[in-house]
Design brief:
By secondary structure, the protein is mostly beta strands. Helices cover 3% and strands 59% of the residues. It has a 14-stranded mixed β-sheet with strand order 7-6-5-4-3-2-1-14-13-12-11-10-9-8. Helix 1 (106-111) links the parallel strand 8 (95-98) and strand 9 (119-128). The two termini are 17 Å apart.
Length: 185
């Protein structure tokens, strides 16, 4: 089964087209993002392979004319580079956060059976686009509201003062990320 999502960027010109394919034992997200961050435009293609529980097993991010990053994970918090060399600086991360997309918010949202008021802290592999730098980012999600049609989560970056209340549909895909992204399909 395939789901399609299209987002527009709010804080700078840009769009994203995402295809999410669900298979018996895995999920595959593939996307193209185009944007402009002065003084230049960029194009990003990424793919994320997850287990059915949304634990990330592989991520590839390619930025046109800048290169690409390829990481694999064991779903338990260990990460490896393209030569399968262990990356101990990423130990404990289950999820990834790619800066150019709201899709990666879906990963921790879908992995947990949330109750209203529940709050969880996640250690994320953070990939900054278009620079392709990889670091660790601590994030907190709190379930503020939950209905049959979706939910609202408060997102907090624990490494900065950034906070946003994100609304998602019943599949955990972002509908509105105030100031950053808005879903149009």
């Amino acid at each position: 089964m395939e789901k399609i999502a299209v987002w527009k960027s709010i804080d700078h010109p840009g769009m994203e087209y995402l295809s999410l394919e669900e298979y018996e034992n895995r999920l595959l997200a593939r996307s193209v993002v185009i944007g402009v961050e002065e003084p230049r435009a960029f194009q990003v293609e990424y793919s994320v392979v997850c287990e059915r529980n949304y634990a990330v097993r592989a991520v590839m991010v390619a930025v046109t004319h800048r290169g690409h990053t390829l990481l694999s994970g064991d779903g338990q918090g260990s990460w490896f580079d393209r030569e399968h060399k262990l990356l101990p600086e990423l130990d404990g991360c289950i999820d990834v956060d790619i800066s150019a997309t709201p899709f990666t918010n879906t990963l921790p949202i879908r992995r947990i059976q949330w109750q209203v008021g529940q709050s969880e802290v996640f250690k994320m592999v953070y990939i900054l686009v278009p620079d392709l730098t990889v670091s660790v980012d601590q994030q907190r999600y709190t379930c503020l509201e939950k209905t049959d049609h979706g939910a609202t989560f408060r997102y907090e970056s624990l490494d900065s003062d950034f906070t946003a209340d994100i609304t998602v549909d019943s599949d955990g895909l972002v509908l509105n990320y105030p100031g950053l992204f808005e879903r149009i399909i």
